[in-house]
Amino acid sequence: MKKILTVLILLLALAGCGGNEKKANPTAKAQIQPKTSVILKKSAVPTLFIHGYSGTKNSFGGMLQRLETSNLAKKELIMTVSKEGSITTTGTLSGKKDNPMIQVIFQDNKNTEWSQSEWLYNCLADLKKMGVESVNLVGHSMGGVSGLRYMMSYPDDPSQPEILKFVAIGAPFNDFLDTSSNQDMADLLKNGPTEVSSRYQDYQKLAANLAKNTKILLLAGQLDENTFNDEMVPTTSALAVNALLKQTNSVTTQIFYGPNAQHSQLHENKEVDKKVSDFLWPKS
């Protein structure tokens, strides 16, 4: 009998201990951790968009519209360059910190990179007169070739704004030479092309003129993993100047794959939109 009473006492004691445990309150509100907000810090630095060979207002029209619709930037000005190099403008630079975009259109859209670089000089001289001290440049195809030639041809010119960032999309920097048959991409990026065009040789001579603080983004397209071109420009050509420029500048490269990486589709590719916008206007 005493054993039975002892067991009962122990059970009651254990039950009492269990009753002292705090139970979860189902009505209690869970503490919500504050989310870290991502902020796009906009500036008043204009970005010029330069079309390629035989390009028109439609060449960058879609990208500019998408960037504006996404509230990443604001298209404020169109600079149209005549065959003689004179410039007419549509719109006005507001001076607001809205990441202003400027579309550059060459009426003689099949002229040489030398002429285009001179016309770009004229555009930037006009912007400097408007009080613009620094700009970014984005060029597709020949627009990228002309943009780089411009930056190397007019060093330390007081009539020109500073170039902060430069983006080249599918630009044939080594003309249309394709070195992929005897050179892998890692070697190209490290050492430069094994075969060089006269255009690339010009870059080699002028590279020392490039402002060292300009940040550079080189983008290339490939239809698939085994087709080393965007149907027009060899991947090795679009990335050919990496080894040359990285000696003094910060250079980033990326290859896009698939049908939307076709040459004329690169500036319609939303992945390219994102890469370009993240590079030009990074979020904090």
| Fraction in helix | 25-40%
Share of β-strand residues: 15-25%
Specify the overall morphology: globular
Oligomer kind: single chain
Topology (elements, then pairings):
Elements: H1 2-19, E1 47-50, H2 61-69, E2 74-81, E3 87-91, E4 100-106, H3 113-129, E5 134-140, H4 142-153, E6 162-169, E7 173-176, H5 185-191, H6 198-206, E8 215-222, H7 235-238, H8 242-245, E9 251-257, H9 270-280
Parallel strand pairs: 1-4, 1-5, 2-4, 5-6, 6-8, 8-9
Antiparallel strand pairs: 2-3
Helix pairs in contact: 3-4
Provide a concise account of the structure shown.
The protein has 284 residues and is an alpha/beta fold.
Characterization of the model:
With 284 residues, this protein is an alpha/beta fold. It is 32% helix and 20% strand. The protein contains 9 helices and 9 strands. The protein has an 8-stranded mixed beta sheet with strand order 3-2-4-1-5-6-8-9, with helices on both faces. Helix 3 crosses helix 4 (142-153). The radius of gyration is 29 Å and the shape is globular. Residues 1-30 have low confidence and may be disordered.
